[in-house]
Amino acid sequence: QVQLVESGGGVVQTGGSLILSCTASGRTFNRDALGWFRQVPGKERAFVAAIWWNTGNTYYGESVKGRFAISRDIASNTMFLQMNSLKPEDTAVYYCAVNRLPYSSSRTADFGSWGQGTQVTVSS
Questions:
Q1: Alpha carbon of 56 to those of 10, 32, 109, 111: distances in Å?
Q2: Which of 7, 17, 56, 57 shows its CA 20 to 30 Å from the CA of 77?
Q3: Quick one: which of 96, 116, 83 has its CA closest to 13?
């Protein structure tokens, strides 16, 4: 059973940068996609970005394109989210998860093995 642990959250000013990490244990990945989602109180969890482990191919939600970059380190079984030009509306709890489908998806229901989340707060 895979376990995912997010880290790297914190408080940052508008325009600043932050790097989140998602470290996996219990299995290694091959033809899998891992993704980042975020959630604010009272709203549904929203897709941020995802990466295919074997190819490194990526896809992003519209609100973060050009500002965020997803990557992975196969040796350490870790996924990263580089967040630049942060805005107050990026404030949320950020989660990582594994895509259970063999094709790209941005639907929360298609992902599983969720981590516990890490809080990101962008102050104005």
A1: 27, 10, 22, 18
A2: 17
A3: 83
